[in-house]
Amino acid sequence: MPKPCTRCLLKDYSKEVYDRLITEGLKALPPEDLVSDEVTFARLDICKECGKLNQGTCLACGCYVEIRAALKTGKCPYSKW
Predict the structure, then answer these.
(1) Burial class (CB in 10 A: 0-12, 13-18, 19+), 23
(2) Environment class of residue 55 by beta-carbon count within 10 Å: exposed (0-12), middle (13-18) or buried (19+)?
(3) Which residues contact 38 (CB under 8 A, 6 or more apart)?
(4) How far is the C-alpha of 24 from the C-alpha of 15, rounded, in Å?
(5) Stated pTM of the model
(6) How far is CA 35 from CA 16, 23, 58, in A?
(7) Is the Cβ–Cβ distance between 6 and 54 less than 8 Å?
(8) Nearest CA to 60 among 77, 79, 81, 80?
């Protein structure tokens, strides 16, 4: 596995970890609790530019940004989205 990038999402450096944590986590949620893929990707683009992103987690709140960005109730702690 490549060395984790501090400004990367989990999907960018470890498919195994991404599938175990993110894919399985999202599958466990009711579809009605999730936003569209377009909204998720737009939110993640903002996260990737943030200095608080560290190896797929948000240093401000500790969440996995790929899960928070997919949730209808998900909010950026800095109100960027």
Answers:
(1) middle
(2) middle
(3) none
(4) 12
(5) 0.85
(6) 24, 15, 19
(7) yes
(8) 77
Q: Are 41 and 77 in contact (CB under 8 A)?
A: no
Closest by Cα among 37, 50, 54 to 79: 50
The pLDDT of 2-18, averaged and rounded, is 75
Q: Give Cα 76 to chain centroid, integer Å.
A: 11
Rg of the chain over Cα atoms, rounded to whole angstroms, equals: 12
Please name the residues in contact with 70: beta carbons below 8 A apart, sequence gap of 6 or more. Answer: 26, 34, 35, 40
Give the model confidence (pLDDT) of 13-72 as tens digits.
778 888 888 999 999 999 999 999 999 999 999 999 999 999 899 999 999 999 999 999
